[in-house]
Amino acid sequence: MSQSRPVYQFNNIIVRTPSQSVVNGLRADDRGNPTFEGVKAEHDAYIAAMKDAGVKVTVLPALEAFPDSIFVEDPALVFGEGAILLRPGAETRIKETLEIEPTLRAMFDTVLELPAEGFTDGGDVLTTRESVMIGLSARTTKVGAEALQVALAKLGRKSEIVATPEGVLHFKTDCSLLDDETVLSTARLAKSGVFERFKQVIIPEGEEPAANALRVNDVVMVGSDFPRTIEMLDKLGYKVVPLQTTEIGKIDAGLSCMSLRWFSNTL
Ligand code: CIR
Asked: Separation of 266 CA from ligand 1 center, angstroms?
């Protein structure tokens, strides 16, 4: 289904306050624990930037039992037309879905569930104007991705299953949309040919984590630790909002992970 409004236009987001346990969040390589205060400061700045970008922010309470629950993007997928409850592929995260479910049922008329087999993390899902791209990864299995395709079809969304580069946590770890026609991607992901129908802006070598940027309305939020990416996007005419991601970066997270975003006609 193609929509009339730009895919990056949002007026609603859900975020979750970080728990003290966030310092124990999952990570592939240990570069030391993030500090709670640092994560909280980065999260607070993110919420402020979202409000500045014109979205209504619903803030859910911290969940001490779930260190990674600040990353609300992974247990669900939301659109104006409905929400889908996902099945995160990390054992410590799968029950985050049950925690976010009541909020989604209260906010959306349609909430779809996936069958209890296979796994899908929201971090592997890139919503584009023409289709929803689902990246296979260590967190998203083929069975999970196919089940998600069935749910997406019920919401009238076309989808496609694509590959995530080896060793990369999520599909969106390595890419984000800059606008309806343009994708920001690492060279390693672009090389797979997955973005041939898009204009592609390639991340400067050495700044790969900057690929998880986030276009919200008029602005592109980008990690402030990535000056060459910021300069490149600025020169291309994007209105860049640098946000610190140093602490959440230690637990393999970027900017898309911290919110569920949608456009509601009934705001
Ligand atoms: C995890 O490994 O699940 C978290 N430490 C990071 C999740 C990042 N989420 C995302 O990219 N959507």
From this structure: 30
The Cβ of residue 117 has, within 10 Å, a number of other Cβ atoms equal to 10
Q: pLDDT by residue (tens digit) across 166-196?
A: 999 999 999 999 999 999 999 999 999 999 9
CA quadruple 108, 114, 118, 123: dihedral, nearest 10: -10
* Residue located nearest, by CA, to atom 9 of ligand 1: 257
b vs e for 11-22, b when ≥16 Cβ sit within 10 Å of the residue's Cβ? bbbbbbbbbebb
* Mutation pick for ligand 1 pocket among 23, 26, 71 (CB with most ligand atoms within 8 Å): 71
Distance of CA 149 to the CA centre of its chain: 18
Residue 3 has pLDDT above 70, yes or no: no
> Ligand 1, from 23, 164, 251: best to mutate by most atoms within 8 Å of Cβ?
251
Confidence band for 266, pLDDT divided at 50, 70 and 90: confident
Mean pLDDT of the chain, nearest integer: 97
Closest atom of ligand 1 to CA, residue 124: 12
Q: Ligand 1 center to residue 253 CA distance, Å?
A: 5
Query: Ligand 1 center to residue 38 CA distance, Å?
Result: 17
**Domain made up of 12-262: CATH architecture:** 5-stranded Propeller (3.75)
Q: What is the reported pLDDT for 1? A: 47
Q: State which H helix or E strand residue 101 sits in.
A: helix 96-107
Q: Where are the domains of the chain?
A: 12-262
